[in-house]
Write a structure and sequence with these properties.
By secondary structure, the chain is an alpha/beta fold. It has 11 helices and 17 strands. Helix 1 crosses helix 2.
Amino acid sequence: MTESVTASTPVEAESALRPTLASAPPGVDALTIAKLLASSGLRRWLHVALDDTQAARLADCLAFFAPEVEVLVFPAWDCLPYDRVSPHRDIVARRLDVLTRLMQPVGAKKSGRPQVVVTTVNALLQRVPAPEALEGRIMLLKAGERVPAERLNGFFAENGYYRVETVGEPGEFAVRGGIVDVFPPGEEQPLRLDFFGDDLESLRRFDPLTQRTTGSATELALKPVSEVILDPAAVERFRTRYREAFGAVRDDPLYEAVSAARAHPGMEHWLPLYHQRLVTLLDYLPEAGVTLDYQALEARDARLETIADFHEARRQIEGGGDSGGWVYKALAPEALYLAAAEWDSGLAARPGGDFTPFAAPD
């Protein structure tokens, strides 16, 4: 292209794979996404940022340039590949809140606003539970309804909630007589459920620091806070697939904990064994346009190399245990993460492009 380019008007430079949206420094990229969404006639758009910092910046810019658009931020796990620790509950709660929102038609809400999902390279590479795994996992509570205690406790146990003395973070609940405090995904504050027997009399929001009531609610949608759902079917599926993948099991704390339907640190790193199938974030956005941050492909390739390195390190020590006291049996990278070819095919036919802050070449 030989025409002059201004910072407020990015142009497309032809690419063999995807268009390049040139002359789009930080800030202009958000404005461009808002314009692309409006002009395309689409109701959803996905932007893939380099990292969490860039994702937060872009989300803030979108809120400024396009207040009519609903912005959803989908983060990656905050732990290393093949780690012994689980992702933080707040991170997982935010991920599941976004996935359950994407399962609804975009016009289903009263606002009917179009949506932009902002994610990161690491998050897009990671496989996620399929929509059918989350269907029926939302428990709607309304004031005045009967909610048996065993039903509520069963939901907490199967969907990753942790019982604590005082609720302060998403995914926690506390029980004190006829009062149940819970902090579900998608809520800015925890809620206090006041029961008389099995009858839910009221729902009140409260400040987790002061424990003082800040408002009331008429209903609450409880969502999972773990991508691992420990219901009987998932437990049996895990047991069968774990033995098929790794052979006979002996003195394996992970296997024993999941067999007893108990949470175990790092159990999310065997996510494919609990579910019938895993999908990608792109599968939740089948008709969305996609834009990528500058150098997103380089970040993708670097991340895939890191994943391969961590898997190889785990594989080399499988034969003799490691410092953790038990053998870490690692799944193949392709079971948990996208390959570069899957990434490319998933983006191939979608509208959008790859941002660069530089001008388009002649």
